What we know:
The chain is mainly α. The protein has helices at residues 4-33, 41-46, 48-52, 54-57, 62-84, 88-109. It has one domain (4-114). It is built from six helices and no strands.
Amino acid sequence: MLPPLMKASAFWTPLVISLVATPICLLLGIASGGAGHGDYFLARLLFPFTMLSTIPFGSITTPFILLAIAQFPAYGMILGCANERGKFMHAACVMLFVHGLAAAFCLMWVGENFS
């Protein structure tokens, strides 16, 4: 059993990293949109769930903007909890697979306004 400080660190390390990565990824995603004149490639790779929402709605709506903002912190919380339980690699592989699958779908099917 890990001491309490190490257990706390096991949770907080992935969460803090995800919180630092969030604004960087958001800026990259926004920049790839180029004020509507870009190709949205990085946005589709980094935020596939939000970009997939453009298929039924035709635009990026407010709830999905909030999803994009919360996506990486949620990943960090999931990885932090898994890290505390010694299942970090398993959770990371599952998350990578799900995110990668969503990104692949996004690259194939996102609407004409976001190509």
